[in-house]
């Protein structure tokens, strides 16, 4: 029969092992979460169909272990700081190929996203990302972004608002893809996309960008494979902060924003 001391040691050892298992599970969860957030900036385009398979908001399976339950945050439901969307719905129009180049790389271009949460002003980089800016100019003139939701907000590890999907689900696009550009931008130091960057979402594979893009409201660690094509102005950053402060619905740091972010109107102008 085990002595009281032996029993005490056995119980202590078992407790320690349970704690280790919980810590290991929590670390695995954190790694999976960050990988999912990064992968969620990706979209897969079905040739000719414009169908996207966006990165999932979950880890791809249910976890029932105690560590996952202890570590899982509860959803944060902040008040919606945004106004009601303007009447209308996304056109859902698609095209078979990238539009012909019409932008002048020597000119300055600016984009304004009039959202329900405020204006987001962007200085576009036509000199270093001409195909991307040309695509946005074309899509804005076609009203492609109008009445579309910004469907995703990440608030842990990566700090971005993702928009540009007329379906509002992460499953939509323009039907064509564009090439990657400006991936050696000097601003992308140490694999960090600095706050104020606007960049394209893609599959992580070359030349798979469509219409979905993300707005970086806080420095975010990401591999340099997402085309940076402009910088967000001061007023735009204020709007993004308002959206970020309202949080996201899942409570896991990656989900639909609590703020009802709808792009009422997108315009691109050159000078």
UniProtKB/TrEMBL annotation:
Keywords: Isomerase. InterPro entries: Cyclophilin-like_dom_sf, Cyclophilin-type_PPIase_dom, Cyclophilin_A-like. One of its GO terms (molecular function) is peptidyl-prolyl cis-trans isomerase activity. Residues 1-32, 58-103 are annotated as: Disordered. Residues 1-24 have a biased composition (Basic and acidic residues). The keyword Metal-binding does not apply. Coiled coil: none annotated. The keyword Isomerase applies. Pfam families: Pro_isomerase. Residues 118-268 form the PPIase cyclophilin-type domain. PPIases accelerate the folding of proteins. It catalyzes the cis-trans isomerization of proline imidic peptide bonds in oligopeptides. PANTHER family: PEPTIDYL-PROLYL CIS-TRANS ISOMERASE B-RELATED, PEPTIDYL-PROLYL CIS-TRANS ISOMERASE-RELATED. This is Peptidylprolyl isomerase. It comes from Streptomyces cinnamoneus (Streptoverticillium cinnamoneum).
């Amino acid at each position: 029969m085990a002595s009281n001391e032996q029993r005490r040691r056995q119980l202590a050892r078992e407790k320690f092992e349970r704690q280790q298992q919980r810590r290991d599970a929590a670390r695995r969860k954190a790694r999976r979460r960050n990988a999912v957030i990064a992968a969620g900036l990706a979209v897969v385009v079905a040739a000719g169909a414009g169908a996207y398979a966006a990165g999932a908001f979950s880890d791809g399976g249910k976890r029932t272990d105690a560590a996952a339950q202890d570590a899982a945050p509860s959803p944060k439901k902040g008040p919606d700081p945004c106004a009601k969307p303007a009447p209308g719905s996304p056109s859902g129009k698609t095209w078979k190929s990238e539009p012909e180049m019409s932008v002048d790389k020597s000119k300055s271009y600016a984009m304004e996203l009039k959202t329900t949460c405020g204006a987001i002003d962007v200085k576009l980089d036509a000199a270093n990302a001409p195909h991307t800016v040309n695509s946005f100019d074309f899509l804005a003139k076609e009203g492609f972004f109008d009445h579309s939701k910004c469907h995703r907000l990440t608030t842990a590890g990566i700090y971005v608002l993702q928009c540009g999907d007329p379906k509002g689900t992460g499953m939509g696009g323009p039907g064509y893809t564009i090439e990657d550009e400006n991936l050696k931008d000097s601003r992308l130091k140490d694999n960090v996309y600095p706050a104020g960057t606007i960049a394209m979402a893609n599959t992580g594979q070359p030349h798979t960008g469509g219409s979905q893009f993300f707005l970086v409201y806080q420095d975010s660690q990401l591999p340099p494979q997402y085309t940076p094509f402009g910088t967000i102005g001061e007023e735009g950053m204020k709007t993004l902060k308002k959206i970020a402060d309202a949080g996201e619905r899942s409570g896991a740091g990656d989900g639909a924003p609590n703020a009802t972010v709808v792009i009422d109107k997108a315009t691109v102008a050159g000078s």
